[in-house]
Design goal:
Strand content: 5-15%
CATH topology of the largest domain: Beta Polymerase, domain 2
CATH architecture of the largest domain: 2-Layer Sandwich
Mean pLDDT: 85
CATH superfamily of the largest domain: CorA soluble domain-like
Radius of gyration: 34 Å
Number of strands: 7
Order of helices and strands: HHHEEEHHEEEEHHHHH
Shape: rod-shaped
Strand order of the largest sheet: 2-1-3-7-6-5-4
Helix content: 40-55%
Largest sheet: 7 strands, mixed
Number of helices: 10
Distance between the termini: 52 Å
Low-confidence stretches: 1-17
Amino acid sequence: MLKKKYLRYIPLASPLASLFGTHRTREIFHVNPTILPHREEVKEVKAYVFDYNSEIVKEAELNNVQEAVSFKGNNCITWINIDGLRKNDVESVCNDFGIHFLLIEDILSVGQRPKMDEVEGILFCLLNMLYFNDKTKTVETEQISIALGQDFVISFQEDASRDVFDPLRNKLKVNSRIRQRGADHLCYAMLDMIVDNYFVVMEKLGDEIEQLEEEVIRHSNTRSLARINQLRKELIVLKRNIAPVRELINGFIRSESDLLEDRTTKYFKDVYDHIVQAYDFTENYRDMMMSMQDVYINNVNLRMNEVMKVMAIVTCLMAPATVIGGIFGMNFDDIPMLHSKWGFYISVFAMLAIPVAMLYIFRKRGWY
């Protein structure tokens, strides 16, 4: 009761806490690699299969992930996409396709840094798909793991409600170039779409930065500063997920695995160019946010200087009246015009005339 009594006199306490988004900081930096992560298992796991070659393509939704093994070694390229991670299901699929248990741990990990590994004939990569939430104005991440084997690609996603692979599915349904190539080209196409979606997220984030820039220049306030801090946190998320992908793609380029054809290397080089460009954009956005913060601080200082200048002018204008009043208020009998009937009017006139003259001089010198 005592807290409620006094909290009503502090109306900004609660809004400021949400305004500067301190909870978002905890979300971004909550990962501790020394603590074993705990992943909550989903209630429902969905598995989809694209089985194709240059002539035919089959699309199927599996009733359970154990059915995926039936597509192994059928002389077609098989893409198995599993939405939702459950330990038993992941282990079952990985054991059927010869994926090492160390890679299984990476698939089930939480907050893993994007990376690429080659273990026992399987090329494995792990990275994050990025989405921009238009309601909260935040960058959201979804971890995806991709295992490339002989004539198959298995992808593991956390969220079954969204991904960026719909254009790829549409290409597989028609007789596109992807169906003429091997599983390594399918892996390239998936990474390419993930990286291309980074630019979509950065474009939306760039629009937010542009709007904020106009707000800061025209009429900045405390909310502008809070928005600057929020966008800087989103840029941290963006940079932390984009920067390691350069090493990931470079790993495919330098790999001498038999799973990668020589002609596929040039496609991975194209993805590498895109991810380098995306990283440069994040650096540019970071520089813009730093400049914007400097502009905000300069605007605050400018307004403070304007206030101080007005107060200094008022103080200067009041000084003559204070001096005159102080002189004629002294307790001496021998003061000029002390007993004159015009003494009061002359002193009042001097109190008004001198400030007016001072204003004219200040104006002539351009002080205001």
